[in-house]
Amino acid sequence: MGTAPSAQEILSDLPAWAEMLERHADTFAALQAGCALGLVPKADTEQRPGRMLVWTRAESGGMQAGLRPFTGYKDCGVDILFVAEDAGLAAIHRALADRPLGEMKGALRRSELFLFVLKPRDQLIEDGWGEFLETLGL
User: 16, 47, 73, 80: most buried, per Cβ within 10 A?
Assistant: First the structure.
């Protein structure tokens, strides 16, 4: 039995994240270009710079997964930020091929994932985040 991947290995699994975003394209279809969601390990919020996985709505349509430095909550450049405990991040990663958004909802309920909304709710809805937020029960 191998060791579980580290948080940094999970973030760096960009092909798996991109495939998940493609499978869930309908959930993100209403997003305006440039809208972004960040996922950062809790440990990376306590050091600077940390590393953050970002899902961004591309100008050409569709979602893209990428990495960028996490330099703090104020200037992280995303609309919605999730901070993940290692257990929550690992659970979401294990569920990428099956039900990752359901696992995100579960991790929120288990306090293994924490949500930080960095724009006013009305702005999020106007930008097209409504369906995603509903999927998570928010």
Answer: 80
Cβ neighbours for 19, distance < 8 A, ≥ 6 positions apart: 96
Report residue 41 as tokens: 């390990």
Do you find a cis peptide bond into 49, omega within 30 degrees of 0?
yes
Q: How far apart, in whole angstroms, are the C-alpha atoms of residue 29 and residue 63?
A: 9
First to last CA, the chain: 37
Question: CB atoms < 10 A from the CB of 111, how many?
Answer: 9
- 3-class secondary-structure state, position 137: coil
H or E element: which one contains 7?
A: helix 7-11
Task: Kindly report, residue by residue over 30-81, the tens digit of the pLDDT.
Answer: 999 999 999 999 999 988 789 999 999 999 889 999 999 999 998 899 999 9
pTM greater than 0.90: yes
Query: Which residue type, as a one-letter code, is found at position 133?
Result: L
